[in-house]
Design a protein that fits this description.
Helix content is 31%, strand content 20%. The protein has 29 helices and 40 strands. The strands form 7 sheets. Strands 1-2-3-4-5-6-7-13 form an 8-stranded parallel β-barrel, surrounded by 5 helices. An 8-stranded parallel barrel has the order 28-29-30-31-32-33-34-40. Strands 18-17-21-15-16-20-19 form a 7-stranded antiparallel sheet. Helix 24 links the parallel strand 30 and strand 31. Helix 1 runs parallel beside helix 10 and helix 23 crosses helix 24. With 1005 residues, it is α/β, with parallel strands linked by helices.
Length: 1005
C-alpha cells in the first residue's frame, strides 16, 4: 500500500508554486468560469496551460474544477472549454452537473472524470451509478462517518473507482450541492460558484406564539431570567463555561454564541494513520481563497507527517483484507461504534508513535494559519455539538495562554503560557485578546520577555500592548484568553520558498545519464551524445537520446577530462531532476570549449523537458477523436437565436448526440467489473419511452395494491413536447400529513384537483442528532395512507428522504421489501443516483426525481431516463426554463416545476442548537407563564425558526437522517403557469409539507 495523494488547493500562480514546493502530490484549480470558487483569482486558459506544464515537470498532477451546474445556453462554451483543457494534458476534471458529465465522456472519453462532493454520492448505489457513467474518482461528502467511509472505499476499490475525501479546511453547514440558502437570499448560488456564506452570519432561534407571531425565544429567556449578554455570572445559557487545558482555562463561550450554523474547520491531522490504512486514494485540502501562508504551512505539515508515517506504519495487507471482509457484517454506523472500531484498528498501535515533538509542532503550526477552530467532522466526532463554532465565524488562531496580569502604567501584559507550548509569540507576530468587553488584536512591536517561575516551572511572557487606535478602550482582566493569530516567520518562509531553492520540497524525476562520442567512423568528426533514462513521479519511464551538431576535435594541449565533463553535465541548477547515475564513455583525448558543453547540456535538458510534458498530452489519435466529436457536438448544438424561431422540424442536440454519447460510455466500460448488481445499461436509456403515457390528462385507475401488476400503467402526467404544446396541465402536491391526505381524498379543497401526491413520512423534530429509521412506524404510516387513498383518482407516490446513508438506505429498502410481501406497490420519488435503477429492476416501481437532483439542463434530463418524471431545479429562472425546454427531447422524463411552497434551502447532518439550549428551551416552554400556549405541547409540536435578525424567519424541520431549513419566503409562481405551459411544461407541484390543513383550501390552479 502506498501513501495517499496529497491534494492541495490553488487559487493563483503563487499558490500553485507554494503548493508544489511544500510537497503536494497533486493540485486542483479552476478557470475563470464554471468553478465553484468564482471569487478566487483563478486561471485563464493560457495560465492553466502554463500551470499544467510547471506541475508536470515537478511530478504533480493537475485537476481542473468544472463543478458548477450548467445552463443550456452554456453547454456549447463549456464543451469547447473542456476540449481545450484536455489538449493541455490535465490529469482529470471535477464535475457536478450530470449533463456535463455526459458531454465530457462523449467528447473526451479518455479524460479522467471526478465526481464532485456536490454530486452528493453517499451510498453504494451511487458508486454503481458512477461506474456506469465512466467516473474514475468520487469525492465523498464531508458528512460521512468512519464506518460509512470504509464501506464506500472498499466497494469503490472493488469496482475500480478511487475515493477522495476532505482532509483539512472549511466545512459547509449543508450537504454540498444541497444548499440554496445563498441563492435564495441574495441570488448568489453555491451551485454556480458564488456562495455568499450566509452560514457565517448571526442567527437566533424563534418560535410561533398562539397567533403565529414570531418570538425570539433566546432573548425571551434572557429577559425572564435577567441574564445579560456579556454577563460573567453563571447561568444556564450564557454562562462563562471553561475547560481545563494544561492547568489553564480556555473560556470557550465568552460571546453570545449567535453563529448557530457556522461550522468549525475540518482537520484530520490526528487521524492520518487511520486514513492511510483505510486505503483512501486522495486527501484533499480545502482553501483556494485562503492566504499564501495557509497553503505553505498546511501542505508542508501534512507532507511531513505523511512522510514520517510512511516509515512507521506497517502496511499489513492481510489485516486489511480481513477488515474488508468484515465490513459488511455490521449495519451500525453510530458514532460510538465508529470510535470503537477506530481504537481497535490494526494501525492504532502506530498512532501513539506518530505523536512525537514534530507532531505537536505541526499541530501548533496548523492552528496559527486561518482556522475557525478544529473538528474531526462527522468522521470520528463522538459529539456533534463540537462541530459548530457558535462563538465566532472567523479566524480563531492558536490558544497560547491567559492574561495573568495587566500593568496599565507600563502598558504591559503578562501572559501565563500554556504548558508545553512550542511556538512562543515573537516580535512581528499577531495576537488576539479575547475579553468579555470584546476582542482586541495587535502585532507585537517589541521583543517579548520570557520569564519562568522556578517553583512550578510556569512560563510567563511579558508583551507590550499596542493600541493602534487610542479611541478604542481595551479592558483586560485576569483569565482572558490569548491567541496567536499570525506568525511572522510563516510569512518569511513563504517568501523564501518562492525564491530559495533550499526551501523547496517536491518529488523529482529520477534521471540516469549516459555520455558517449559518435565519431561516425571518421577520424575528424567527434559528436557528443547524451542519453537519459527517466523515471517520472507517476512511474512512467522515458528514454531520450540527443546528439550535438557541434563536433569536438582532437586535443592539442589540454583535453577535456572525464571529471570536467561530469562536473559540467551535473550543472542542472533548479531543474526538477535528480541525477541518479551518470556513465561517461569517453577516451579523454578530445577538446571543446566548456561553453559548448554547457550549451549542449542546456539544449538536451530543454528537449527532455518537452519530452516529459508531451508524455502527459493525449496522442494525436485521441485528440483527433475528441476534435471530431466536439465538431459533431457543435454542429448539432442549436444557438439560442435559432431556438426561439425554430420550427417543429428543428434539430435537437439530445436527439443528435444521445446515442453517440451512450455508446461511448458503454464502450469505455466494456472491461469494467461485472460484480455490480442491478445496473442499468445506459444504452438502454434510449429504449425507454413514454408510449404508455398519454399526452392528455388520463384518469388513473385505483391505487394498485396488486403486486402482480406491472407498473407500466397510465399516470396522471401530461407529456407534451415543445412542438405540440397544450393548455392542459396536471398538479401535484408534496404532503406529510395524513389529515391533509384525508381532506384531499374527501375533495375538501374545492377547485384544485390533484393528480399526484408525493407523500413523505414525517419524523419527530430532533435538532440535536438523527435517530435510526423506524421501519415499523413507516409500514404503519404507509399502510394507513394507502387505505385513505384507495379508489382515488390521484396517484400516491412515496417520497423518500433526499439523504440516506447506509443504515437509512437499508431501512428504506427493507420497507419496500415488506410492502412487496404484502402485495403493496408504491411508486417512489427519490434523488439517489443509482437507486432508481435498483428499485426499478428489483421492485418494478416507477421512479420520480425530486429537485434535489439539480437538473439544470436538457442533457442532464437525457442522462436520467430511468426516471418517469423530473422536477427541475428551483434555481432556474423563467428564461432558463424556456431555453431548457426548447432543447428538451420528447423521450426525456416528463418535466415538472415547483410553483408554490417554501423551498428547501439546505439539508444538514449537523445540529441547530446545543444540548443546553435545547433542554432549557424545553424547561422554559413548560414552566414559564409567557409560554403557557405551548405548556401541554411537546417540543416536537413547536414551530422553530432560524431568525436572521432581519425579520426573516426560516422554518427548521427534521427529516429522516437530518434537518432542513426552509426558505423564509414562499415561492408563488401560479401566475406564471400559462407561460410555462407555453414552453411545454405541463406538470406543476405545490409543497404543502408542514402546512396547516387550510393551506390548500383556497388554492386555485
Amino acid at each position: 500500500m502506498s501513501l495517499p495523494e496529497l491534494l492541495a488547493p490553488v487559487g493563483s500562480i503563487d499558490h500553485l508554486k507554494l503548493a508544489i514546493f511544500s510537497g503536494a502530490s497533486s493540485i486542483y484549480l479552476s478557470g475563470k468560469k464554471f468553478g465553484a470558487r468564482k471569487y478566487a483569482k483563478n486561471f485563464s486558459l493560457s495560465e492553466i496551460e502554463s500551470a499544467v506544464k510547471f506541475a508536470h515537470l515537478h511530478n504533480v498532477k493537475v485537476y481542473v474544477t468544472v463543478n458548477t451546474l450548467i445552463k443550456d445556453n452554456e453547454l456549447f462554451e463549456v464543451a469547447d472549454y473542456v476540449f481545450k483543457l484536455y489538449k493541455c494534458g490535465i490529469d482529470g476534471i471535477l464535475v457536478q452537473d450530470i449533463g456535463l458529465l455526459k458531454v465530457v465522456k462523449y467528447i473526451c472519453p479518455n479524460l479522467n472524470i471526478h465526481a464532485s462532493t456536490q454530486m452528493n454520492i453517499h451510498n453504494i448505489e451511487g458508486i454503481k451509478w458512477a461506474k456506469e457513467q465512466g467516473i474514475s474518482r468520487i469525492v465523498l461528502p464531508r458528512e460521512l462517518t468512519y464506518n460509512e467511509v470504509k464501506e464506500m472505499v472498499d466497494f469503490a476499490h472493488s469496482v475500480g473507482i478511487e475515493i477522495e475525501i476532505f482532509l483539512h479546511g472549511a466545512l459547509c453547514y449543508s450537504y454540498s450541492g444541497r444548499c440554496l440558502l445563498s441563492s435564495l437570499i441574495g441570488n448568489r448560488s453555491g451551485n454556480r460558484g458564488t456562495c455568499a456564506q450566509p452560514c457565517r452570519q448571526k442567527y437566533q432561534i424563534s418560535i410561533d406564539d398562539v397567533e403565529y407571531n414570531k418570538i425570539n425565544i433566546l432573548s425571551k429567556i434572557n429577559s425572564k431570567t435577567n441574564i445579560k449578554t456579556n454577563s460573567r455570572t453563571n447561568s444556564k445559557i450564557n454562562s462563562k463555561t471553561s475547560t481545563k487545558t494544561n492547568n489553564l482555562k480556555v473560556n470557550s463561550n465568552q460571546h453570545n454564541g449567535e453563529y448557530l450554523i457556522s461550522p468549525k474547520d475540518l482537520s484530520l491531522f490526528d487521524h492520518l494513520p487511520k486514513l492511510i490504512d483505510l486505503g483512501v486514494d486522495s486527501l484533499k485540502i480545502e482553501g483556494r481563497m485562503r492566504s499564501k501562508e495557509y497553503i505553505t504551512i498546511v501542505v508542508s505539515q501534512y507532507r511531513q507527517a505523511l512522510n514520517q508515517l510512511k516509515g512507521k506504519l506497517n502496511f499489513n495487507n492481510k489485516n486489511k483484507n480481513i477488515n474488508k471482509n468484515n465490513t459488511n457484517k455490521s449495519n451500525s454506523s453510530n458514532i460510538s461504534k465508529n470510535y470503537k472500531n477506530y481504537r481497535n484498528h490494526s494501525s492504532h498501535k502506530y498512532h501513539d508513535s506518530f505523536k512525537d515533538n514534530k507532531y505537536y509542532n505541526s499541530k501548533e503550526n496548523l492552528g496559527m494559519v486561518f482556522n475557525r477552530g478544529f473538528t474531526s467532522g462527522h468522521f470520528l466526532t463522538k459529539n456533534n455539538q463540537k462541530l459548530i463554532n457558535r462563538r465566532k465565524p472567523g479566524h480563531v488562531g492558536l490558544f497560547v495562554g491567559n492574561v495573568s496580569n495587566f500593568n496599565p502604567k507600563l502598558n504591559e501584559i503578562s501572559i501565563s503560557l500554556k504548558k508545553g507550548l512550542i511556538n512562543i509569540p515573537e516580535r512581528g507576530d499577531g495576537i488576539l485578546i479575547e475579553s468579555f468587553d470584546g476582542d482586541y488584536g495587535f502585532e507585537i512591536s517589541n521583543n517579548p520577555v520570557l520569564d519562568v517561575n522556578k517553583k512550578n516551572n510556569q512560563k510567563y511572557l511579558l508583551v507590550k500592548l499596542v493600541k493602534e487606535n487610542n479611541n478604542v478602550n481595551v479592558s483586560l482582566k485576569q483569565g482572558d484568553n490569548i491567541y496567536l493569530t499570525k506568525r511572522k516567520k510563516f510569512n518569511d518562509l513563504t517568501k523564501n520558498m518562492l525564491h530559495n531553492n533550499d526551501k523547496k520540497s517536491f518529488k523529482k524525476s529520477i534521471v540516469s545519464i549516459k555520455f558517449s562520442i559518435d565519431s561516425q567512423n571518421s577520424d575528424t568528426l567527434y559528436f557528443p551524445v547524451l542519453e537519459a533514462n527517466v523515471i517520472l513521479g507517476n512511474g512512467k519511464k522515458l528514454n531520450f537520446i540527443d546528439r550535438s551538431d557541434d563536433s569536438w576535435e582532437l586535443a592539442r594541449n589540454k583535453p577535456i577530462t572525464t571529471n570536467q565533463l561530469k562536473k559540467q553535465l551535473l550543472k542542472i541548477g533548479d531543474l526538477p531532476f535528480y541525477i541518479d547515475n551518470i556513465d561517461i564513455f569517453y577516451s579523454g583525448n578530445l577538446f571543446t570549449p566548456l561553453s559548448k558543453i554547457n550549451e549542449f547540456r542546456r539544449d538536451f535538458f530543454n528537449k527532455l523537458e518537452i519530452l516529459i510534458l508531451n508524455s502527459y498530452i493525449p496522442d494525436d489519435n485521441d485528440l483527433n477523436i475528441s476534435k471530431n466529436r466536439l465538431k459533431d457536438f457543435k454542429r448539432n448544438f442549436i444557438s439560442i437565436s435559432n431556438i426561439i424561431n425554430s420550427s417543429s422540424n428543428e434539430i435537437n442536440i439530445n436527439n443528435s448526440i444521445n446515442n453517440s454519447i451512450n455508446n461511448s460510455i458503454n464502450n469505455s466500460n466494456i472491461n469494467s467489473n461485472n460484480n455490480i448488481s442491478n445496473k442499468s445499461d445506459i444504452s438502454n436509456y434510449n429504449n425507454i419511452n413514454n408510449s404508455n403515457i398519454d399526452s392528455n390528462i388520463i384518469n388513473k385507475t385505483n391505487h394498485h395494491l396488486d403486486n402482480n401488476k406491472v407498473v407500466n400503467e397510465s399516470f396522471n402526467i401530461i407529456n407534451e413536447s415543445s412542438n405540440n404544446k397544450t393548455s392542459k396541465y396536471s398538479v401535484s402536491a408534496y404532503i406529510n400529513d395524513l389529515e391533509i391526505l384525508k381532506n384531499i381524498s374527501n375533495n375538501d379543497y374545492g377547485e384544485t384537483n390533484f393528480n399526484r401526491l408525493y407523500l413523505e413520512v414525517p419524523v419527530e423534530n430532533d435538532f440535536l442528532e438523527s435517530k435510526p429509521i423506524d421501519v415499523s412506524y413507516y409500514i404503519m404510516f404507509l399502510k394507513e395512507a394507502l387505505n385513505i387513498s384507495n379508489n382515488q383518482k390521484y396517484e400516491l407516490v412515496w417520497k423518500w428522504p433526499d439523504i440516506a446513508h447506509k443504515d437509512t438506505k437499508e431501512g428504506l429498502i427493507k420497507i419496500v421489501g415488506i410492502l412487496k410481501k404484502l402485495n403493496i406497490k408504491l411508486n417512489i420519488m427519490t434523488s439517489f443516483l443509482g437507486m432508481n435503477s435498483y428499485l426499478k429492476d428489483n421492485y418494478s416501481v416507477n421512479i420520480y426525481g425530486s429537485y434535489a437532483l439539480n437538473v439544470f439542463n436538457s442533457i442532464s434530463a437525457s442522462n436520467l431516463k430511468d426516471f418517469v418524471l423530473l422536477t427541475f431545479s428551483p434555481e432556474l429562472s423563467i428564461n432558463d426554463l424556456k431555453t431548457l425546454m426548447d432543447n428538451y427531447e420528447v423521450k426525456n422524463p416528463v418535466p415538472e416545476v415547483l410553483v408554490k411552497g417554501n423551498i428547501e434551502t439546505l439539508i444538514t447532518r449537523k445540529p441547530f442548537i446545543d444540548k443546553k439550549h435545547y433542554s432549557y428551551i424545553n424547561s422554559i416552554c413548560n414552566n414559564n407563564p409567557k409560554f403557557n400556549f405551548i405548556k401541554d405541547k411537546s417540543i416536537n409540536d413547536i414551530n422553530f425558526y432560524l431568525d436572521d435578525l432581519k425579520n426573516n424567519f426560516y422554518p427548521i424541520k427534521s427529516v429522516e437522517g437530518g434537518n432542513l431549513i426552509l426558505n423564509s419566503r414562499e415561492t408563488s409562481l401560479e401566475d406564471q403557469i400559462p407561460r410555462l405551459v407555453s414552453f411545454g411544461i405541463n406538470n406543476f407541484s405545490i409543497d404543502a409539507r408542514w402546512k396547516s390543513k387550510d393551506y390548500l383550501l383556497n388554492l386555485k390552479l
